[in-house]
Design brief:
With 353 residues, the protein is mainly beta. 9% of the residues lie in helices and 48% in strands. The protein has a 14-stranded antiparallel beta barrel. Strands 1-7 form a two-stranded antiparallel sheet. Strand 14 and strand 15 form a beta hairpin. The chain is globular, with a radius of gyration of 23 Å. This is Type IX secretion system membrane protein PorP/SprF.
């Protein structure tokens, strides 16, 4: 671990200095995928098999600002796009996922872009299966712009001149990553299983040699109070439903369990999820409650969520703001025609937000 006596960060408390050094010296604690409080709005990051399940095509822009009370807030920006190919049987779908993580004071950035493919098939009249895969390229780096070294400090505390320190100890790291997944779904239920970073790519930072394998299992069930296809002989009746959801994720030494409930009364969706994060050393366990609201405006969806810390550590770190914006297209008339001809798949029941 680097000697903490030679580093300072401009306008940053000492505790953040230590956190910054831990980021550089022990990226194993940080080399984890970001978690979204709206995982189903960001479902392409959750499982490539979700590509093309809900829309003919869509584009989603997401922004997450985590621990906003700290100077080194962790920010994630993600752009996702999907397109269900208009081929016979509607079996094929393509996706693109672009993600950037950044923490402000340290200058740490991680950029990743992935191409995705999903294949959909019907198992029975009421049950369908989607399998997907993704191949991604990533780049991880640490910037030194905010660091001030001891040889730059004058006797009066002022900063002058460049440092003689060699700043190439942690050069940028490039890697490739592979992922697969499957979604089994019916009109009122779904089960998702996925694995990311199957090849455990090398990051090349210090003692950390690989990005840990991430495994996720999630699912839910939708209870209809009012079915959107029932009433007045039209598909335009709004949906009213409840959807309990559950999820388990394991990556490296951490585990995350989640349970929640969504209420949808189109065009409004309300949700609340409880999240428990446990680390390998059993220290620093976090308990978080995420409140979610989503709105639909024709072909537009807007979602917002806020994480409320329930444990002392989660409260000390601060919450997280998350915003998602989606432009989507789904041809209802064509879908109804395909359904009559029994050429359509059941619509996956998972909430949009």
């Amino acid at each position: 671990m680097p000697d903490t006596s030679i580093y300072c960060i401009r306008n940053t408390p000492c505790v953040l200095l230590v956190l910054a050094l831990l980021l550089v010296a022990r990226p194993a604690a940080w080399a984890q995928d970001v978690y979204f409080s709206q995982p189903l709005a960001n479902r392409q990051a959750l499982n490539p098999a979700f590509v093309g399940l809900l829309d003919d095509y869509s584009g989603t822009l997401s922004f997450r600002n985590q621990h906003p009370t700290l100077a080194g807030t962790f920010q994630t920006t993600q752009l996702a796009g999907e397109w269900r190919l208009p081929s016979a049987g509607l079996h094929h779908a393509l996706g693109l996922l672009v993600n950037q993580d950044r923490t402000g004071e340290v200058g740490y950035t991680r950029f990743e872009v992935a191409g995705q493919y999903a294949y959909h098939t019907r198992l029975t009249r009421e049950l369908a299966l989607s399998g997907g895969a993704n191949v991604g390229y990533g780049r991880q780096r640490v910037g030194y712009d905010n660091f001030v070294f001891g040889d730059q400090l004058a006797a009066d505390g002022s900063i002058s001149g460049p440092s003689a320190e060699i700043l190439s100890a942690y050069p940028p790291s490039n890697y490739f990553t592979l992922g697969v997944g499957a979604v089994l779904y019916a009109e009122q239920a779904w089960l998702s299983v996925s694995g990311q970073h199957l090849n455990r790519p090398s990051l090349g930072f210090g003692t950390q040699t690989e990005l840990p394998l991430r495994l996720n299992v999630s699912g839910g069930y939708k209870f209809f109070v009012q079915h959107p296809t029932i009433g007045r002989g039209t598909n335009d009746v709004r949906e009213i439903s409840f959807s309990p959801v559950a999820s388990y994720t394991r990556q490296g030494g951490s585990q995350r369990t989640e349970a929640g409930l969504y209420f949808n009364a189109q065009p409004v969706t309300l949700g609340a999820t409880y999240r428990n994060l446990i680390f390998a050393n059993k220290e620093g366990t976090q308990h978080v409650l995420a409140a979610i609201i989503g709105l639909e405006f024709g072909d537009f969806r807007l979602g917002y969520s806020y994480d409320v810390g329930l444990s002392q550590l989660a409260q000390d770190l601060g919450g997280a703001h998350e915003i998602t914006f989606t432009i989507r297209a789904f041809d209802k008339a064509e879908s109804a025609y395909r359904r009559l001809r029994r050429r359509n798949y059941p619509l996956a029941a998972c909430p949009f937000f």
